[in-house]
Design goal:
417 residues; alpha/beta; Rossmann fold; Nucleotidyltransferase, domain 5; 2 domains; 7-stranded mixed beta sheet; 12 helices; elongated
Length: 417
């Protein structure tokens, strides 16, 4: 096959406005395209990588996690791109092993990654695309990332996906949890509203979800991370309020300052501050601290900065040495929480007795409420009463501890003589 130069005309009208500025931008090693369904992101990546492949001789690898899906996804998408640019008859196409050689000699391989070790067999790869990357795992990504070698400039990895719940690896890996984009990474979120070719029927289907299934609408239409599972905290309100007014309202009610902290290091250390109106069963969560890598001296300084050094704060009793050290550092009433059989379940039951109001600045509390869910039984498919350990419990654990400020009132039997 004679290698030939391609004079490719890139017409802006053939692209959605959100994508066109990025057609020939190869300045980042990691490129993340995510969002709602029917946003056109996979079609765009296919077109972009065809253009990249035609601009310089490349070796590209397009991946699905499941090999039996290659034919109907990345293979079909790339053939559509080739047809769009009227290059089909100029390409060497091998359907049996899903490889395509472009007119200039660029080699493109499309395959499944059911067996991650297969990736080691591809040499001098300079461009990789993980379609539906939420189905891969971090080990898959790291393995393939290591295959990008050779002298070619603009080595890149593309990731495309529709968001799932926040327990999926992509949520933290790409910094969605902190809002900090990792180095050398480009991220673009799009929805069906960015796709001028989205059909009227598809638009109506997505917009009907808003009323019928709001959680699925957030994922499929708005392209947000959300959970579709049974939430442990199913109802709460987000409102602005003055916590000191709530604490000091003179209505003859019993009101308490409830403070709890969960130790962490690799996981976050959390401090949750609330006002409890026990008579009216209302819980006002007004402040939070959420930070990884904290030493006990850091925790003490943080508590002192919030003017809480003399307040009773309940800490995880699993770390008595830390509690003792905090007392020496000036946190005078650092108190171990009480734990026993089913303490998590009982603590959550106590929490759910209250109408919960969260101040909007407590973003990590809100995040956990939206993602802390119950486990499903593998045998029955039904939800159990055991929370899923999905990493969205650190604020809630501190909140459970804090409610130990509320004592059960002893029952007194009065006998008239």
């Amino acid at each position: 096959m004679v290698k030939q130069e391609i004079d490719l005309q890139i017409d802006e009208r053939n692209f959605n406005e959100a994508y066109f500025p990025h057609v020939i931008d190869y300045s980042h090693r990691y490129n993340v395209y995510y969002g709602g369904r029917c946003s056109g992101k996979s079609y765009f990546i296919s077109d972009k990588l065809l253009i990249k492949g035609l601009s310089d001789k490349r070796r590209m690898l397009f991946l699905m996690k499941e090999g039996n899906k290659v034919e109907d996804t990345i293979w079909r998408l790339f053939l559509d791109s080739i047809h769009k640019f009227q290059l089909y008859n100029q390409c060497k196409i091998n359907k049996s092993n899903h490889t395509i050689e472009l007119p200039n000699g660029t080699w493109v391989k499309m395959t499944g990654m059911d067996d991650p070790e297969k990736a080691k067999g591809y040499v001098d790869i300079d461009t990789v695309w993980f379609e539906e990357c939420t189905k891969f795992n971090i080990e898959d990504i790291d393995l393939v990332d290591g295959t990008l070698r050779g002298k070619k400039k603009n080595k890149e990895i593309y990731f495309s996906f529709n968001p799932v719940d926040k327990s999926n690896w992509v949520y933290k890996y790409f910094g969605f949890d902190t809002g900090v984009v990792p180095p050398d990474t480009f991220i673009l979120k799009t929805t069906y509203k960015d796709n001028k070719w989205c059909t009227e029927a598809e638009i109506k289907r997505l917009e009907r979800l808003k009323e019928r299934n709001p959680a699925r609408y957030k994922i499929e239409a708005e392209g947000d991370f959300a959970t579709l599972d049974k939430l442990v905290i199913p109802h709460y309100n987000i409102e602005e309020f003055d916590w000191q007014e709530k604490l000091n309202e003179d209505k003859g009610d019993k009101r308490f300052l409830a403070l709890g902290s969960d130790f962490g290091y690799q996981d976050p250390t959390t401090l949750i501050c609330s006002v409890v109106d026990d008579k009216n069963k209302k819980l006002y969560i007004y402040d939070e601290h959420y930070e990884r890598g904290m030493l006990n001296t850091d925790i003490a300084r943080m508590i002192i900065s919030k003017n809480l050094r003399k307040e009773k704060i309940f800490f995880d009793c699993a770390e008595p040495k830390s509690i003792q050290e905090l007392r020496k550092l000036g946190i005078e009433r650092a108190t171990p929480c009480k734990k026993g059989k089913d303490s998590i379940k009982h603590g959550l039951q106590k929490l759910l007795q209250y109408e919960i109001i969260v101040h909007p600045k407590c973003t990590h509390v809100i995040d956990e409420f939206n993602n802390y869910c119950y486990k499903k039984s593998k045998q029955t498919g039904e939800y159990t009463n055991e929370p899923l350990d999905n990493g969205f419990c650190h604020c809630i654990d501190a909140l459970r501890y804090s409610l130990q400020i509320i004592k059960k009132q002893a029952k007194v039997l009065t006998i008239k003589l």
